[in-house]
Structures are given as structure tokens and as C-alpha cells.
């Protein structure tokens, strides 16, 4: 049974994207407001909430593993599983012993309404149809922040790429009420947040009450305590050129960073994926953005082993990644998702070949990241530091270089000028030269 002590203990585990991370933070705030004490995942708890991802089969397997770990360590706790995997395959989750509640994406933020029902032999499943209307978020919380904060502004997607399950898991594209998101940004500012990361499934499609994503960044730029605004992954065909103008303006808080999911460098594969661009279009945009915005860091997602992908198609992807001014790529082996068009194809690539191609692209990415970092050696750049870690202070430059430096001062959530001195494994060593706040 759930503990009857004065303060119940709860923990939240998040799998997947920044959007999930943002939603989990809201869940933590609601737990505290409801009288729970938050404990690390793995510690003794009365309530566990696992916020799931289903973008790949590997993600599904990781979700099941985490759920079993929590149940094994907390056999008497109330175990709630929420999110994308709950939306898509509640039946599979219901077979895991110890799960008490399964909630899809429509009702996931109301999970606490069901958390006091007690343990049952079979879990309660709540998987409502996802509404298509724009939304607001009820937010609470007054705990100080010492990290960057994710700000959810959009959800869902209408693009329906042939490989992607997310439109089914999260529904169609919808935007957050403009005034509601600005009000949460003010709340985060009051809690000490200096950098906001805008999150969503398809960020560039944001439209609410006549406002666009450009209006969002401009309004957030007016908040005096918000010193940095970063855009997370944004689809290639949805990026307004005005964002590049803001990045180029040193008086604007929007950082010189774009993560653009290319997925493939082969026009033939892009067509099979039902992507809405061809390489000529995206090449011109990326090169123009790189030439226009000083210090711009551009990252990408690349999928390998899509059904029918030939060696020549994969070669086109590698060539495009090397030729274009990408600083790094996230590599995803194609994963069959039931219900998608691609999963019904008959020309699937063997898993071993997908793994081989993935490993090759990851090596290329490591080299390009190293070269990007190496080009900054000797420069002095602003870094926003995070929590103290392993006798060193980690943080990020505006263009997403991860930096660590040693200091006897408390640098938590402070900006400083750092001389970048050497390149390690996906990190740069630097020396703090000046604290800015």
C-alpha cells in the first residue's frame, strides 16, 4: 500500500525528447504542490511516474526495462506509466507485473487524479482520443532553477512522414496559447531561469492568435531575466528566415543554433520518407544560414537503413553531411513502427547493415564535432554554467559547445567569459576569465 506518512515520496523518470522533459517538469511541480517529496528515481518511493517514448523499438524496450526496475525496487509503490508508449501500446505495458495505471498523452498531465486509487491486479488504462484544438498549460512551481528550462510551445504534427509514429502518438499539430506560454516564461524567469529552450514536436508550425514562432522569440526577448533563448529541433521547411536575423542581432537573446533534422541526403529516399523538401532546397538554406549568422552551430538528425536504401543512397547521405556545414549529427537506425507506411514495405535493410551504417555515420559526426570545436580553440566566448559536477563546472556557449572549467567560485547558473583552450571527447576545456553576473 502507499505510505500513510506525513509526506509521501514520488519520483519521475523521463525517456525521450525535450518535450517529454518539459512535461515531466510540470509533473514534478504538481507533485510538490500536492504534498509529495521528490526523490531520485531508484530511491524508495510511494509513487513512480514513468514518462515514456515510443519513437523506436529500442525506446520501447528501454521503457519496459525502466518500469521493471522501478517495480522491483518499489514493489508496494503505485506505478504509473504515461506518454507516447502508453498511447500506442497500452496492452504491452499492461502485461508488466506491478503497473497500476497507464495514461496516454491526452490525460498524462492529470495522472495525479488517479494516483491514489491503490494497487490493482490489472492496471487502469486511460487512453483518450487526442484533441486537435490549441491548448494552455496549468503550471505551478516556485523551486529555483539552476539549469536551462524547456518551454513547451507546440505539440503534435500534421506532416506524417512514412517512418514516423509520433503523429499517431501525439496527434495533429496544435499550438499553445500565446499569453499562457509567455506567463509561464515569466514564472520561470522569477525562478532564476536564464536560458529557455523552446520545445515541441513541430516547432516551426506554431500559430496561435496570429502569432508565429518569430513572435514568440521576440516576446520572450523582452523578459529582462531571460538572457538566452534556444530553439530545439525544427523542421527544414518551417524555419522563417527572420529567425536568422534575430540570431545575427547580438542584442537579441536568440542563440546562434539550429538543429535541422535532414533524415537523408538522398532525394530518392526523402521522397519515400514523404519529406517535404529535396536536397537542392535544404542545401541552399543551410549554406545561406551558415554564411549569414556568425558562429552558427547547425546540427542534424540522420536516419540510416530506411527500407530500400541502397549503398549509393547511404553514400549520398554521408557526402551531404560532410559537404554541408553541420557541426554534428544524431544518427538513428531505421526502426519499424507498426501502422506506418514504411513498415509495410518489403525491402527492409538487415539490422546488421543498419548498425554498420550507423557506426560509420557516428564516426563522421565525431570527427566533424571535433573539427568544429577545434576551430574555436583560443577564442573567448560566453558560457552559461550549470550545476557543479566532478570538481568542474560544465556549461554551454551560445552556439552549443559544451565547456568545462575549474573554479573555486560558485558558478551555478551564472554567465562567464571563458577562454577555450583544448578539445576533449565531445567537450572543451577552458579557463574562466570574467564573471558577467
Short description:
By secondary structure, this protein is of the alpha/beta class. 31% of the residues lie in helices and 22% in strands.
Could you walk me through the main structural features you see in this protein, from its secondary elements to its overall organization?
About 30% of the residues lie in helices and about 20% in strands. The chain has helices spanning about 20-35, 55-75, 85-90, 90-95, 165-170, 180-190, 215-220, 240-250, 265-275, 280-290, 310-325, 350-375, and strands spanning about 10-15, 35-40, 45-50, 80-85, 100-105, 125, 150, 155, 175, 195-200, 205-210, 210, 230, 255-260, 295-305, 330-335, 380-385, 395, 400-405, 415-425, 430-435. A six-stranded parallel sheet has the order 2-1-3-4-5-6, sandwiched between helices. A five-stranded mixed β-barrel has the order 17-18-19-21-20. A three-stranded parallel sheet has the order 7-10-13. Helix 11 packs parallel to helix 12. The termini are far apart. The mean pLDDT is about 95.
List keywords for this structure.
single chain, 437 residues, alpha/beta, six-stranded parallel β-sheet, five-stranded mixed β-barrel, 22% strand
Number of helices, where a helix is a run of at least 4 consecutive DSSP H or I residues: 12
Helix % is: 25-40%
Summarize the main sheet. 6 strands, parallel
Kindly state the number of beta strands: 21
Outline type: globular
Spatial strand sequence of the major β-sheet = 2-1-3-4-5-6
Rg for CA atoms: 22 Å
Beta-strand content bin: 15-25%
Q: How far from one another are the termini?
A: 48 Å
Structural class: alpha/beta
| Mean of pLDDT | 95
Indicate the low-confidence ranges by residue numbers: none
